Amino acid sequence: MFNLKENKKIYVVTNRKLIDKDSNLCKVIEKCALKGADGVILREKDLEYKDLKHLGESIKIITDKYKIPLIINGNINAVLDVNAYGFHTGFQNFKSIRGNENICENLVVGVSVHKVEEAVEAEKLGANYLIAGHIFETDCKLGLKGRGIEFLEEICEKVTIPVIAIGGIKENNIKKVLNTKVYGVAIMSSAMKIR
């Protein structure tokens, strides 16, 4: 899929539970980086700080080697201790941490949004980029209909910061997404199954 990105970006979102038994997350990240990933978002929500930090340190060796950013989801202490490029969080959590400006002043901060209003507010509150989704139906959100290209286009019209699309993006639909004003896409399932 990385060969389809043209001048847009592809970010890999991790989910070690999707990896084949004969591989591991670091091997998968290295393969993605070799094929042209533009960044890695370490999103392992079930890990406690110590394990997330340890995994982040291992992945940062790879991202540094390929000169791509490592962004850690959900744990600001792990972000700071690993010296990651950025911090990613959900919209509600972002609203609550914005009062503590010193935590995030030297980091790129991304926010997941599921409504146009959230996108607009996140930009006003200082988000550096948005992940908008889910665009298409995905196994990660079973039973939930995708929000569609129109949703993505509306967000791209309403904000000036980069918007990254996520959710069910595959080789057969990535062009539809990349033909919008989107900055890039985030992929999980197809990246974790890379060969």
UniProtKB/TrEMBL annotation:
Gene3D superfamilies: Aldolase class I. InterPro entries: Aldolase_TIM (IPR013785), ThiamineP_synth_sf (IPR036206), ThiamineP_synth_TenI (IPR022998). GO terms for cellular component: cytoplasm. The keyword NADP does not apply. This is Thiamine phosphate synthase. Coiled coil: none annotated. The lineage of its organism: Bacteria, Bacillati, Bacillota, Clostridia, Eubacteriales. GO terms for biological process: thiamine biosynthetic process. One of its GO terms (molecular function) is thiamine-phosphate diphosphorylase activity. It comes from the Bacteria. The keyword Iron-sulfur does not apply. Residues 10-190 form the Thiamine phosphate synthase/TenI domain. Pathway: Cofactor biosynthesis; thiamine diphosphate biosynthesis. It holds the Pfam family TMP-TENI. Keywords: Thiamine biosynthesis.
